[in-house]
Design brief:
Layout lengths: L1 H6 L12 H4 L32 H6 L4 E3 L4 E3 L43 H10 L27 H12 L8
């Protein structure tokens, strides 16, 4: 029960008023409940950061957010200092880890910046990102782009099949 109390304690943030629960709602897969914003709001009201709150289960396996001298940027995703705005962790130049696909149907918007509003668009992006006539915007950080996807050549039906499969990964968890 201590963990649950800490998770919902609004006195741990600075300024007071926000808890882990503010951005990681159990009823929707432990992600940000405010789906109208592309990224998560910080502890200062109406101040939006640069990252979309990933499912809290991502934090269980993510490395601490830290500067990697070999990579030359900040990487990781587990923030140590509760209540600090994202800006204190330096420029958002680091690689973002791959969050779990469990309960993916509940965790929109997608990607670290909330750019994608639905899973169909995510799958279409991975299928056609490197196809010039699709008109995708350039990446924020080109070094982060995976060359394993981008021009998969999937048909619309195959994209729909991938989305249908991803939607089956929602387990019906009720907090």
């Amino acid at each position: 029960m201590l963990g649950k109390r800490l998770f919902s304690d609004t006195d741990l943030s600075s300024p007071d008023g926000q808890s882990c629960l503010s951005c990681h709602e159990p009823a929707i897969g432990f992600v940000d409940p405010d789906v109208d914003l592309p990224t998560s709001e910080g502890v200062v009201p109406l101040r939006v950061g640069f990252r979309n709150a990933p499912t809290v289960t991502y934090h269980a396996t993510a490395p601490d957010f830290h500067f990697d001298p070999d990579f030359g940027a900040y990487i990781g995703g587990h923030l140590k200092n509760i209540g600090e705005p994202p800006e204190v962790y330096g420029p958002q130049l680091g690689k973002f880890g791959m969050p779990t696909l469990r309960n993916i149907a509940l965790t929109a918007p997608y990607f670290h910046n909330g750019f994608f509003k639905d899973m169909k668009t995510v799958v279409h992006f991975f299928n056609t990102r490197d196809v010039p006539e699709e008109g995708w915007p350039p990446p924020e950080v080109p070094v982060n782009v995976s060359r394993a996807v981008g021009n998969l050549g999937l048909t619309d039906e195959e994209e729909d099949a991938v989305v249908a499969f991803l939607m089956t990964l929602t387990d019906g968890f009720k907090p």
